[in-house]
Amino acid sequence: MARFTFRLPDIGEGIAEAEIVAWHVKVGDKVSEDQQVADMMTDKATVEMESPVSGVVVELAGEVGEMVAIGSGLMVIEVEGDAAETAPAADETPVEEQVEAETPGVEEESPSPLQGRGQGEGDVSPAPVPTEPAPLPASGEREKVLASPAVRARAKDLGIDLATVKSDGNHIRHADLDAYLRYGSAQGYHAPHVSRAREDQPIKVIGMRRRIAENMAASKRAIPHFTYVDEIDVTALEAMRGDLNDNRGARPKLTMLPFLIVAICRALPDFPMINARYDDEAGVVTRHGRVHLGMAAQTDAGLMVPVIRDAQDRNVWQLATEISRLAEAARTGKAKSEELSGSTLTVTSLGPLGGIATTPVINRPEVAIIGPNKIVERPIFHGDEIVRAKLMNLSISCDHRVVDGWDAASFVQAVKKLLETPVLLFAD
Fold first, then answer.
1. Nearest residue to 66 (alpha-carbon basis) of 125, 132, 12
2. What CATH class is the domain 207-426?
């Protein structure tokens, strides 16, 4: 038997370290070559780590939430002697330097290959004690059912076997649990009697949630926000959208968002201070000619902002296709790093949960963020008559160091005119 040290490879240009956001194995587990063993997060993306060899895990570099330097040992795997000779090292170090032959009676005195890499002298913690792998649920859930940790925790609290829950997609989601609870009694399900009071649950802030917390805190500390909200009559636009969807053929279904993006892009040339980025340290504001629109998307891991490149050159059908593609890539964790950076302006929408008004936080170093709210039907005066109208509030938060209130209000008024007279969206 021999030991193989799997070192964290170079996973991106300029990346010096990465955060452990998930372990998919534990000490004592058997792993096979190319099996996913960990998820590592950088400033740009989450990267799946796959084992380069087969064997038994004997050491892990640290706990979820800890940082590991590029080139440092990520895990130690006990391998067969013959397999070790051909297993490629992640950092291309010669195999004979990475495989250490076991010597009886010496292992306890030998330092771990994961110790002292990217840490201080006194910052070395003992290797974890191997434990027996937890038994699989009788339903085989671990092999067949895909669900986020939050969904699994909720199902466990409710006493629901995820293998019995139906879903329209590949993953079980909270909505699927809700449907099961609503209609599952016909299948013999009875909610367990549980106490209303639940124990406190400390949750370590790691991974995507930590990145979001840091970015939002930095934005609020550095940027003097102000928010302007206006009401838009989208009755005519909704009628046009319905007609286009009825005759779309094989093209994607249109939501309100593509129309809003077209209106934003048409209005921006007269308000270049909105489509800008502010470099605090250099004291320079760059007004961008192209619109690289960030689209805030909710995922199981937290809020992500994929970017629609050159939004000003796309029509509503092209925008709908790109919105769908980027949202799916973000939800499944397949968005590339270049698809998650470089935005010049962001739109954030809660869809049907949009509420009356929002005060969105600016995606620094941008200087503005736009938030459409939900569409509601209300009676309004149209001349001397009272008519039914579909109304939507539109919010914009701006960096007051760069954008004046007059400019923000004038920009929203320009967008409002385009949305209330939708034929202008398609006029040259």
1. 125
2. alpha beta
Catalytic residue among 200, 382, 404, 407: 404
- Rounded Cα gap, residues 365 and 398, in angstroms: 11
CATH number for 141-187: choose from 3.40.50.970, 4.10.320.10, 1.10.260.40, 2.130.10.10: 4.10.320.10
Neighbours of 325 (CB within 10 A): 15
pLDDT tens-digit readout, 331-388? 888 888 889 999 999 999 887 777 888 999 999 999 999 999 999 999 999 889 999 9
Joined tokens for residue 149: 């940790």
369, 396 contact by CB (below 8 A): yes
Phi, psi of 94 (to 5 degrees): -50, 135
In the chain, CATH 3.30.559.10 covers 207-426
404 as an active site residue: the answer is yes
Q: In the chain, which stretches have pLDDT less than 70? A: 13, 44, 81-144, 168-169, 182-196
- Chain centroid, CA 77 distance in Å: 31
Pairing type for strands 55-60 and 46-50 reads: unpaired
Q: Does domain 2-101 have CATH number 3.40.605.10?
A: no
Catalytic residue, chosen from 24, 171, 225, 400, is 400
Q: How far is CA 143 from the centre of its chain?
A: 24
Question: Is 400 a known active-site residue?
Answer: yes
Instruction: Count Cα atoms within 13 angstroms, Cβ side, for 424.
Output: 15
